[in-house]
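Action item from last meeting closed. Structure (80 res):
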């Protein structure tokens, strides 16, 4: 069963899931292609969620009180 990674960046998801090298992605360092390999090996799956659902923003960004309460509520499986 693959580990699910939630991502709010659709471009990053497309790059990870597409094994074709494009002109726009040739600058990406080879070590970052590891994620692509894990997707191909079905060890991880990348799922898109909207930015408003990204719980990690609580730890990485300054958010409004309403956003804070919503995201904290989603951590505990309920709305605040």
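Sequence:
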């Amino acid at each position: 069963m693959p580990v699910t990674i939630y991502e709010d960046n659709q471009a990053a998801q497309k790059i990870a899931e597409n094994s074709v090298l494009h002109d726009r992605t040739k600058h990406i360092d080879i070590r970052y292609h590891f994620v692509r390999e894990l997707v191909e090996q079905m060890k991880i799956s990348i799922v898109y969620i909207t930015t408003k659902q990204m719980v990690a923003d609580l730890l990485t960004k300054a958010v409004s009180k309403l956003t804070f309460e919503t995201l904290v509520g989603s951590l505990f499986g309920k709305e605040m």
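Note appended to the action item: The chain has a mean pLDDT of 84.
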